[in-house]
């Protein structure tokens, strides 16, 4: 509640002081989830994963419903919600228990910190070389050896911490790996590097410029959740959507890691085992599906929905929150909800999850599809899926290069809907 109070008060001030406007981004990214987790009975799931997913879900649903109703008041609603949050947080304050902090002792914990520190230094040293040599064929992993070494050392430090089962060191090295892997691009590039991001920015600009949906224009108007949320945050904070897009991948990577950790805990894994699962999910993610796109947000929401659904067997609050997060997913992306329902259907057959909750989630997804069936059917719906065709690239300027051949070959195993010319 202290965090919610500070962010809410700063956001109220930011509506009058342009220099503090950016605090609205932190507000919508954190405060709704903090208030829900603090006000509702505990689901016994880690707040580190629930808070960002719940906050994103509230923002998506609020912005989408506003568009459906034909009103678009991001700044006014931000002031109202921040004011209510400030009052509620102030009344709910309790004396915080400050965690004891101490540096790990012993030889191997110090070795872990040393290896992690070396990784951080090598990464920082690599940034200028990456910024000036970004046209290299295979990118920084090959063209900048210190960058590759930094990433390897960060993973090695994590593995040592895993052997020690030291949770604090595990979190530190996991965060460092996230920064090295996904923080490099926004620090060295002037703009988002994935071409589809600019089409998505155009959709956001259309929504913020008109404050309404344009039914029938394209498929995005039927599934506007992601674009509406980005536009909502951009208008309420005064930060351009272009800037948000540049840092989106790093933010969604952290949210994905937190979500995977939460799923591990929901499955009753230990904290070190859950962190190991999060690290595996991070290091194998090399096909750039976490760029500025609806499916990147959908990935995070799907994992948290799965975690809540597992916990729903013993917690009604978890079941309700699962429906809320899934609803935000349903209005944001066309394919991810059905991928998740397919996984849940298999688990339901074996008694792993509640069939009642699965039925509710299916009703939500099918209702959204029915409301936009005319739009979706124009894109072939579930027919004509061609994974190899969907993985093809249109980078004509690079045709014939070894780099493009390797990149295309490695991407051919991607699921349909993650690349190519099909609608995102």
Structure at a glance:
The chain has 424 residues and is mainly alpha-helical. The chain is built from 20 helices and no strands.
Secondary structure: helix percent: 55-70%
Strand content: under 5%
Question: How many DSSP H or I helices?
Answer: 20
Radius of gyration: 22 Å
Number of strands: 0
Q: Which structural class should the secondary elements be placed in?
A: mainly alpha
Shape call: globular
* Termini gap: 37 Å
Q: Which sequence of SSEs, written as H and E, runs from N to C?
A: HHHHHHHHHHHHHHHHHHHH
Give your account of this protein's structure.
With 424 residues, the protein is mainly alpha-helical. The protein has 20 helices and no strands. It has helices at 2-14, 23-39, 47-69, 74-91, 107-132, 140-143, 145-164, 167-182, 184-188, 196-210, 225-237, 241-266, 271-283, 294-311, 316-330, 336-349, 355-371, 373-377, 387-390, 402-411. Helix 1 runs antiparallel to helix 4. The model is unreliable at 387-399 and 415-424 (pLDDT under 50).
Set down the secondary structure blueprint.
Blueprint (H helix, E strand, L loop, with lengths): L1 H13 L8 H17 L7 H23 L4 H18 L15 H26 L7 H4 L1 H20 L2 H16 L1 H5 L7 H15 L14 H13 L3 H26 L4 H13 L10 H18 L4 H15 L5 H14 L5 H17 L1 H5 L9 H4 L11 H10 L13
